[in-house]
Structure formats: structure tokens, C-alpha cells
Amino acid sequence: MRLVVVGNGMAGARLVSEVRARDRHVKITVFGAEAWQPYNRVLLSNVVAGTSRPDQVRLLGPRWHAEHNVTAHLGVEVTAIDRDARTVVAADGTREPYDVLVLATGSEPVIPAIPGVERATAFRTLDDCDRIREAAASARSAVVIGGGLLGIEAARGLAGRGVPVTLLHVRDHLMERQLDAEAGLILRETLGSLGVAIRTGVTVTAVRERHVELAGEELVDADLVVVACGVRPVVGLARDAGLEVERGVVVDDELRTDDPSIFAVGECAQHAGRVYGLVAPAWEQASVLADLLTGADKGARYRGSRLVTRLKAKSVELAAMGETHLTDEEAEIVRFSHRHKGTYRKLVIRDGRLVGAILLGETSAVGTLTQLFDRGGPLPGDRTGLLFPGVGAAATADNPTRMPDSARVCQCNNVTKGQIRACWESGARDVEAVAAATRATTGCGGCRDAVEGIVGWLCEQEGVSA
Amino acid sequence: MSQVHGDTTVGSATHCPYCALQCGMHVANGEITPREDIPANAGGLCQKGWTAAELLTSPERITTPLLHGKPVTWEEALDYTAGRLRAVRAEHGPDAVAVFGGGGLTNEKAYQLGKFARVALRTSQIDYNGRFCMSSAAAAVNRAFGMDRGLPFPITDIGRADAVLLAGGNVAETMPPFVRHLTAMRSRGGRLVVIDPRLTQTARLADLHLQATPGTDLALALGLLHIAVAEGYADLGYLAARTTGFEAVRDSVSAWWPERVERLTGVPVARMREAVRILGEAGRAMILTGRGAEQHAKGTDTVTAFVNLALTLGLPGREGSGYGCVTGQGNGQGGREHGQKADQLPGYRKIDDPAARAHVAAVWGVDPADLPGPGRSAYELLDALGTPEGPRALLLFGSNPVVSAPRAGHVTERLAALDLLVVADFVLSETAAMADVVLPTTQWAEESGTMTNLEGRVLLRRQAAAPPPGARSDLRILGGLAERLGCGEKFPADPRTVFDELRRASAGGVADYSGITYERIAAETGVFWPCPATETETEAGTEPHPGTPRPFLDRFATPDGRARMVPVDHRPPAEDVDEEFPLYLTSGRVLAHYQSGAQTRRIRPLNQVAPEVFVEVHPELAERLSIASGDLVRVRSRRGAAEAVARVNASIRPDTVFMPFHWEGVNLLTNPALDPMSRMPEFKVCAAALERCTGGDSAEDRERDA
């Protein structure tokens, strides 16, 4: 089989490695429009923030391609698909025949059509990150347009570099797709305390030399402008080839387009009416498709993904998942809000299952909640422990004096408090004497303090009663 | 028994019969006291150790050979066995006879058993229960360091560390005196991080506990490595000087950013970062793994990921730091070095290496061409028993697979299908009860020999008590069988004679014992291998090789001296949870018992503490299934079902149940999916269902009625 993959981003590169892991022989050719070796887009916020270096976000390199017998055309854009000849045509004239073609063309940033927008930098590629970091070095002020996940991460990263930054958002609260209004408000205050000024409900009308202009002609200082207004799927190649395209390239549960030889994965694909903009669904799709293409699991099907959003911004802990907007009429809502401390926790429960959650400020429950959400597992009757892990687990009586006589003090030698008391009553007055008689403390030695405490307490009692 | 002057093999100073810590103890007149001179326990003993002597005089000891359940003389038992072995071999060929050994056997016995299989039986079909124990860590560190010594440093180094990460080990129950070293570390301000799906006694001691979902240790290790790189804790100078492959590993963990790992493992990102910070900022740090991380169908890769983390932080080969695996069985270390493994010859040599074959064949006085090649791994061997292609006769020493093998119900069927099952043991274990021939052996304090503990320190087990009349040592049994098979002269029964031959056979191998003598062990309270029989010129004259407490300080045991970093990737458990089997089942140990419990279940005080198999259930799960502590419950998997008493306990994850493996039970359920490299079965995670047994009263009902 000759497999051709168009796109060497997170979805395309993942598909290639998943296929190769299952089948060492299939002939693989991959085209990437960017000359870069593929990198982990999830980590670009860290690059802007300076917590990851560009060389730390690489995925598969040229050496991997060589070692795994994958032909990679990097910096070569595919311009057409000749479906009759089952061949892709690239900008450099390469014609590559395929038996199976996978489109992983990803998406491109949405750049609002406003005057001067060419002065702004998108936030999508490693090149964009370079530009942002370079400009941030000398910028006295910055503006980020867009209060979604990426915009917030970019703004937090710039603030962390010491650049005064204003985040402009057209909607009424931040991350309105993932958060309810109250969470959006608390997030805004948290970011504010970290040096990100936030304006919501504002429309940018122009990008000028040293500032951006808002509706109403107000000006906001900006030596550096970053646009993070969402993405749209790159579907030109598919559309030109006559494949069914709506918002994305339409695929079925096998990730197959309406041409049985052509598949699509990642942000360019539209499955069951949904286009995903996160990496987890793209990788789930890549895994299913690799199973199907190699025959590793012919029954593999993609059934859609559950979305968990984790903000990657220093000192801001935020996790949001699923349907967070349902009301008390539509679902069981459990909520804890402590705006003053920047804490907000919300569970959305339906039919006894977790269908959505927001955790802001403190996320120690996030591991448990994500897994309950992912698996659709049943929830405990008492929801408190879900919001406050550890609550309900009875505090152990550490103080030896309050232990019941049946409590085991020495685990290693199975010695109870009652036995130590009996030992004391027959004359033992220090740890060594108790150890000699009961073997307590002679294993791991961890109960030495407890035994000392009990003996000391018994001696004290004796003194009191005497 | 009093110390006989001049004989180092007799005396009260010996070692505990159980775990790999091999605590030093005195045994005199049935009384046990701890030895202060052995660093591993430094005067400590757990309840297993204190009560170990009870089994020496237990009424459950067997002292008469049994043939089809009836007492017979040794002559009859050995004649019958040898006759049947010869007949099976004549009819079906040498590979129709198999040998299964154990990680509790002394070095001398392990060595002799491997030699017996290859020379007396000429079968390739030998493996041992250590395959179920240490094989994943062994495969990983052989690949990374070129040498598999559990702790490549003295155990006392732990007490001087500033941070220890323990992945999948519950030493507070499995080897309590080990905790003394962790306590020493913590009392100096060092910090302990524990990875475990349960809040174990060990996790309670930790400064930080990462309660990962069963089967996700590998993802967690990759996430920790990702964070270590991203946050600048990679020791680039060390990586350049002492390793190869870092770039590929670094690129591979780019895909394991912490938020992704959090979703798989359930461990919050903040805790992962804290763990890396603790390790990264410590002056001396150690990463240790136990069976919890290793007993998986991806155990080798999991250990590799932890080794990669240790290498990235620049730990292995630096005094006071490093990676180590906490060996489990009493002679789990020595048992994997001297040839009872399917692919191995003494000295940790590979059986498919022509030079190794030539060397060992010369010591054994046979033609290298007559040595068989590699055989089946433990589970594959047990799985093949009594099948048309598999062995028809099995000799079993120091193991109880009816309880300890994965998918044990199936293994029991395979054992029952054999033409001949011969078991050497000192109690009638569940497996011995099935045997055609049972050969009663001496045990522990009744014999001498060497044990190599978890540090790679070779120790001397002295004979401290007289064996009961009727029992014979494993070495004598092998000698008796060899004699009847026509090669008795090659199988002496005296441990020291066998050890001297082992020294020659191991000379020049990775695990070189040639410079170790009983006298040196006695004088030095143990000698660390490798210890070749070379002498060093000093000003004072020539000195024997001192042994090697820390083998990697100058170079690793790879051809170029550098540690190998190999990229690995996470994969889900071989069997994940689903609607029918919605819970993870994991297994482990309790303090009062050892391994299959064949010994400890026969010791009264231990049996009183832990009399029965139980299943640990989280209160949320218990509430949903209307289970109370004390209820009889049934745990089911695709391979079988087991009943056990419920213990409702918030220390376990709500999506997981835990059962100890010292009784027949949990291994009826476990998954025999094998690690592709180590052939380790996936003991530590499978999908299971839980229900209250109907028909019986619930504990609550009983309480009401009472």
C-alpha cells in the first residue's frame, strides 16, 4: 500500500507515527507546507512565555523519518489532488501516486478584516512565536485580540515577560465557550492580578502604528499586537478536488471522505457535524485511522471526542470540560464559588454522570473529574468529595493517647496500644523495654515516636493519679 | 547449634528466609534475634522475620517422600522419578522434560538447577518464577546500563539522599526494615515521593503521593520527563558525557505534556511538577521502581522511562544518586544471574552467545554443541505443559505456581495434564498437593549457601539448625537424580563445592563471582559483585579485588561505557475496563505474608494477623454496590472468579479494587498478557467486576442479628 499524508502538523505527524508503529512495511510519503520539523502546537504558549525553548517542542525529526523509512517532503505544499489518477501534485512539481490519501491540512488563524491588521501577529506557528518573542523584547505595551484559550495564554506569557498587556475580547466574558459568566469573571480578576488588563465587550476597528483603535475611537497602546481570534479549517485542496466540504472535510466514523480512498483527520476534518480545534481529538482520530489502514483493528471507529480544556498559563489553574452551560432546569448543578480567593468549582451532572465541569483556582480534583467525565463513570451519592478531595476521609487519630486500645501501633510486628499498655503495667518504662517485650519498633522503626508517646503518657498518668 | 571453629558455613549468624532485604538474624535453639552487622536491616526485623523459626518445627513440614500421595523411601521416589524422566525423554525427546525454579533458591541451587536442565536433562525448557518478578526491570536496565544489578549502590546510600522517588513499591509492608533507610533520609530533610494507585503504608510516609490510575505509570514517567526537560532540570553536561540517545528521548516526550498525562493518569499537573521539582532540586536523588510499575505487559518500557528520567536528571553513576529496582524475592538478584532463566547461562551470560556457551561448557566438561538453546519463558512454559508441542514432565523447585502464576486456573489445568509432576518443597503447597512425586527438602536455616540481596551483595546463609530426619537438600536431590541419569559425578551436594564451580562458571561474565569466597563473605559481611578473581598491586603488596559497591561511577557496562537512552511510548493496559468489567483489579502484598503464602500461612501469629484473602473497596464503590466491610464479595474477570471478604477503605481509588496475592484467588483473575521483551505477565492491572455474594448475609445483617 502506498500511503500519502498531506500535512505534517500534529495530526499528520501523529498518523504517520501511529501507522509506522503498527506496520513496518507500508510505503509512507508525507508532505508538509512548513519547512519546520513538526512540533507540538500545544506547547507554543510555553515558548511565548519562555518556559519552553523552541527545540523542546519538536515531534518527529528528519532522523526519525530516515530511521523509519518515511519519505518526507518538508516545505513543499500540495496544490492539487488528481483523484482519477490517484496522485497528488505538489508546488515543486512532484507527482506522488497514492492508494490511500490522508488529508491533515489543519486550520489557519482567523484574521479579522480590519485596517492595519497586517501589523499584527497571528499566534499559530513557531514562526509566529519567534516574531512575538522578538517584538516583546522591546515592546513597551502589547495587545492581544481574542479572549479564548490561546489569547489568554499569549497574554499571560507576555505579562510574564514583563510587557504591559491588554487583552481585548469582543464577548462579555472570557472563554465564553468553556466558561459560564461567573467563572469568566473570576478568571478575569485572576489574570488582572497577574498584570493582564482585560476589556470585554469591545470591538477592535483598526490596528495603528503604536496602538489599536476600538469602536468609539478609543485608543489602546500597543507596540505589539497579537491576534488570537480562533481558527478555520484549511479545506481548499479538498474542495478543489470535489470532496464534500462543509465547515471542514466531511468524514464518517472511519474518517473516510466521500472518496473511499481519501481520509481526513485533525482540525480540517468535520465529523458528525463537529470540527475540533484541540489536539486530543486529532490524536484519537489518528489512532483509529491507523488501526483501520493497517488492519490492526478493522473494527475501530471514531465516535467523537469529549473535550477537556486545560489552560496553560503560569499561576492560573483552570480546567473546563463538557457542557458547562446547562442550567439547573436542565441538569443537576453543584457549585462552589469563592471569588475573593479566585476559586470557582462547578459540576454539571445528568443521569448520575458528570457531563461538564469547571475548576478554577485550585485543581487538585481535576484528575478524578476528568476521568469520571471521560469514562462516564457513576458518581458517588455525596458530591462533596468531588469538589473537595479529601473531605469525608476521616482524619486518623494520630495522637496515641486518644487511640483505642485495639489500635495497631506497630504495623510491622502487629502490636496494639493495649499490648503496650499491658507491657507498661508489667513494668516497662521506656521504648527499649517495650521493644524487647513486644517487638514494637523493631521493623521499619516508624512507630518509635508513637510508642514513646504512649509510654510517656502512661508515666504521666501514673504521676497524676499518684 | 554452636559455631564450629573454622567452618564458616555453620553457625547461628544467618539471614531471614523471606524477601530480598535478607535481614541478618541469629537463629539459636529456635529463637531469633536480629543481627546489627548487616546494613540492610541494622538490627530490625518485621514480624515475618521474628516468627520465621516456627516453620522449622512445624507439624506441617513434610519429611517423607510421597509417590501419588503415599509415603515412600527416597530410593523409591528417586528411582521412580528418574525412570519416568528417562521414559518421557526417550519417547518425546529432551524438551519434553521441563524444569521450573524459584527466586528463593540459593545461588548454588539456582546454578545447579540450570546446569541440571542443560547437562543432565539436556532440555532447553527451564525458567523460574523470577520471570514474574524482576524480568521487566532486568530487561530495561540491561538495555540501558549493560548490567542488571537491582540497586547499583549500597542500601545505606538511600539514607543519605535528598530525594527518593519510589514508583510502585510498598516497602513498608513488603520489606519493613527498608523503611529505616527512608526514615534516615527524611530525618535529614530528604523528601520521599511515592507513585501508587493506593494510599499504602509507604505512601503515607511520603511527602508527595501520586495516586495514578493502574496501568498508567509509563504515561506518568513520560510526563515527569517532559516537565524535567521543559523546566530546565536536564543535566546537559552529564547527558553529553555519559549517555547516548537523549535527543530522541527528548523529542519523544514532547508528545507527553503534563495536561495530557493528567487526563490519562488522574494525577494533577501541579503534583507532577512538584515531584519533578523535588527530584530536580535535590543534590542527591534516587529513582526506585517496584513490581507495581514493572508487572505489566509494558513493564520494560515503563522502567526504561523511569531510567530515562534518572539519566536526564544526571543521577545514575553518581555517588549517592541513581536508579535502582527494589528486588522482591529472597534471592531474586542471584536467582536471575546463574542460569535458571530460559535464555541464560551462569554469570549473567546469554545462552545464544557462542563465547558464553564455550566458556560454560568447558567448566561443565561438555561439548558446547550439546548445550540446548533458549527455551520458553515462565508463563509460556506453564501454558505449554501437557500440550502436544509442550513438555510432558515437570520438575519444580521453590515455587508454587498454582497460587502465583497469572490465570492460575488455566495453569492448574496445564499442570494436571502432565504425565509427570515432581515438586521439591518442605511443605505441601497447593502445587505440591497435585504432584505425582513430592520430595521433602531442607529449608533455609538447615542449610548453607549464598544469597545475593537487593543491593547485589553476596551474603552467606549459615546452617543454624539441624534438619529433620528424612528431609534432603535440593542439591542432594539433584545429585541423586543425576546419578540415576548417569552423570552423578557432575552434581555434588556440597554447597561450597558448587559455589566454587559457580565462581569459575561466572568468571568473566557480567555477574562475575570468581573472586568471592565464603571466607570473604564472612569476614566482610557480604561482597558486592562483580568481583573477579584478580589482584591489584598496592604499596602494601597485592590485594584481592574489593568487590563493586557502586558499579557505574566511571562507566556503564555497555560497550562504549555510555548509558543508552531509548525512546518509549505509553500504551493502554492489555485489557482496559469496559461496561461488563468496569473496575481495575490490581494486586500486591500484605506485611504478614510472603509470596504464595506457602510458608507464612503455616505460621500461627502471621495467620492470625492476616487469615484470609480480602478485597479492598473504596467507600464510594462500596456504597454503590451495597457492600459493607466484612461482606463476602465475588470478583470476576474474563479468566475466572474469586470470593473474598470486602474491606471498605478510602485508601484505594474508587475505580480500582485490590487483592493480595498470598492466597489462591486473585491470580485466577489476572491477565497473562506478556511484555514483548521481558515476557512479564500483566499482574498489576486487568478489568474486573465486583458484586456482593448473594445468599449470604451482609455484614450489616449479621451485626443486626448479633
From TrEMBL, chain A:
UniProt keyword Signal present: no
Domain called FAD/NAD(P)-binding: residue spans: 2-286
Keyword Iron among record annotations: yes
Domain of life: Bacteria
Domain NADH-rubredoxin oxidoreductase C-terminal residues, every copy: 308-372
Annotated keywords: FAD, Flavoprotein, Heme, Iron, Iron-sulfur, Metal-binding, Oxidoreductase
PANTHER family referenced in this protein's UniProt entry, alphabetically: NITRITE REDUCTASE (NADH) LARGE SUBUNIT (PTHR43809:SF1)
Residue intervals of the BFD-like [2Fe-2S]-binding domain: 409-455
Family: Belongs to the nitrite and sulfite reductase 4Fe-4S domain family.
SUPFAM superfamilies linked: FAD/NAD(P)-binding domain (SSF51905)
Pathway: Nitrogen metabolism; nitrate reduction (assimilation)
The protein, known as: FAD/NAD(P)-binding oxidoreductase
Chain segments annotated as coiled-coil in the UniProt record: none
Cofactor needs: siroheme; FAD; [4Fe-4S] cluster
InterPro entries: BFD-like_2Fe2S-bd_dom, BFD-like_2Fe2S-bd_dom_sf, FAD/NAD-bd_sf, FAD/NAD-binding_dom, FAD/NAD-linked_Rdtase_dimer_sf, NasD-like, Rubredoxin_C
TrEMBL record, chain B:
One Pfam family cited in the UniProt record for this chain: Molydop_binding
InterPro entries in the cross-refs: Asp_de-COase-like_dom_sf, MoPterin_dinucl-bd_dom, Mopterin_OxRdtase, Mopterin_OxRdtase_4Fe-4S_dom, Prok_molybdopt-oxidoreductase
Gene3D superfamilies from the UniProt entry: 2.40.40.20, 3.40.50.740, ADC-like domains, Dimethylsulfoxide Reductase, domain 2
Domain 4Fe-4S Mo/W bis-MGD-type span(s) in chain numbering: 9-58
UniProt keywords, alphabetically: 4Fe-4S, Iron, Iron-sulfur, Metal-binding
CDD domains: MopB_CT_Fdh-Nap-like
Name the UniProt record assigns to this protein: Molybdopterin oxidoreductase
Species this protein is from: Microbispora amethystogenes
